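Good morning,

Attaching, inline, the backbone tokens for the sequence recovery test we're adding to the shared suite. The designed sequence is right after.
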């Protein structure tokens, strides 16, 4: 299996080579600068020959022998017509003019002139053409650029791929169950975002693992306590040496504990179902204010026992949603308000609507909630008030929170110890009819 660094390096090098070949093919057709350079060089050589002939006693053979170079060939020309020269060009040479011949991009160039009645030709060596000179220069430049670019690509790709390699190793650690892995890579690019998402994923997995362990521990504890109580009192009943009053008391305890187990099981199942539910399935139009009144009446046996009065201010609101789920919210919040209120106290319930939301407030004037407990009241099985442990199981408010999440709603809590609590529920106006 090829590494991603090798694949990326090969890809970039292939792109560089392909683009260089295209550049080479394009650039060799633009040879005017080289042609001008050759013409200037040849004219310089011709002038040198004329000056040497005029100012020295060297023979033409001697001059031609040492003036030639690996780049240019200098020789006598016996037949100008064999050079495919036009009559006008031949006439110009005979008039002691220098004539530069160029017959296309892929042919050699030459300068022809007269020296003491002899025709002299200066041209590129037979192995040289304008095409070859231009091609060799461009090829050298492109080859150098390809080699340098390939080296830089290899070095840079190693740097780019390094965080990916670290990420691969980190995912293997997560697969083993190690959720304490954290990657450090600060960048705004895609790899930086991937690293940030990976760190977020490990944090969430770690939280989920903690919640799972905590959930199992709490469920085990919540089931263990009533089961142990039922088992203990059932054994006492088996002994038979009990008065009628004791027998009635023990059977009442067993019944209450079985109720507690039943409620606990039902709430766990409800919460489990809601946590795996992504949207509200059943949606109907119903009167929200009437639903709240109905919830209060359903709990009448609880608030009449404590002689609690209700102060109700409910606007008429027709809402579109899951009526059964939303009723669970009011029953849980009102039930808590009653449970934590003092005898002969009051509970205030209001419902109002505006263009953006529907707001429900439930205020009691009971024992209140401490500041530390407020941050945890929506955790599963958490019960801030230890004096009411036998009256609940710590799943009511988590159920409320999850239901409101499905409705895209919000819940806020304001409370002070011994002054009461206010729970504010906000539902989006999209569910309003």
């Amino acid at each position: 299996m090829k590494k991603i660094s090798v694949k990326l390096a090969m890809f970039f090098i292939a792109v560089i080579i392909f683009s260089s070949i295209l550049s080479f093919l394009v650039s060799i057709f633009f040879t005017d600068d080289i042609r001008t350079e050759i013409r200037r060089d040849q004219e310089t050589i011709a002038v040198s020959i004329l000056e040497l002939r005029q100012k020295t006693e060297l023979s033409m053979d001697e001059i031609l022998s040492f003036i030639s170079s690996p780049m240019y060939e200098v020789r006598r020309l016996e037949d100008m017509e064999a050079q495919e020269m036009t009559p006008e060009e031949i006439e110009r040479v005979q008039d002691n003019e220098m004539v530069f011949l160029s017959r296309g991009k892929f042919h050699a160039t030459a300068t022809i002139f007269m020296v003491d009645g002899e025709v002299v030709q200066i041209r590129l060596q037979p192995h040289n053409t304008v095409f070859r000179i231009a091609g060799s220069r461009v090829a050298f430049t492109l080859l150098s650029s390809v080699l340098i670019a390939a080296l830089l690509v290899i070095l840079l790709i190693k740097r780019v791929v390094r965080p990916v390699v670290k990420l691969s190793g980190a995912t293997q650690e997560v697969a083993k169950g190690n959720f304490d892995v954290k990657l450090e890579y600060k960048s705004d690019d895609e790899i930086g975002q991937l690293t940030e998402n990976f760190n977020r994923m490990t944090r969430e997995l770690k939280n989920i693992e903690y919640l799972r362990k905590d959930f199992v521990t709490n469920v085990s504890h919540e089931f263990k306590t009533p089961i142990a109580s039922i088992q203990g009192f059932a054994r006492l009943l088996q002994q038979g040496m009990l008065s009628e009053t004791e027998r009635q008391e023990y059977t009442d305890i067993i019944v209450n504990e079985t109720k507690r187990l039943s409620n606990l099981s039902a709430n766990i199942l409800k919460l489990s179902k809601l946590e795996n539910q992504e949207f509200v399935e059943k949606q109907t139009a119903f009167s929200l204010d009437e639903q709240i009144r109905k919830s209060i009446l359903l709990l009448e046996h609880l608030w009449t026992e404590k002689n609690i009065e209700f102060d109700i201010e409910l606007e008429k609101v027709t809402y579109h949603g899951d009526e059964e789920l939303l009723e669970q919210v009011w029953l849980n919040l009102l039930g808590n308000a009653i449970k934590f209120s003092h005898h002969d106290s009051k509970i205030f319930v209001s419902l109002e609507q505006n263009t953006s939301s529907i707001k429900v407030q439930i205020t009691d004037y009971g024992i209140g909630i401490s500041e530390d407990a407020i941050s945890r009241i929506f955790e599963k099985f958490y019960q801030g008030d230890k004096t009411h442990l036998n009256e609940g199981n710590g799943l009511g408010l988590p159920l409320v929170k999850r239901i409101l999440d499905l409705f895209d709603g919000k819940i806020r809590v304001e409370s002070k110890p011994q002054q009461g609590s206010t729970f504010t529920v906000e539902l989006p106006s999209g569910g309003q009819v």
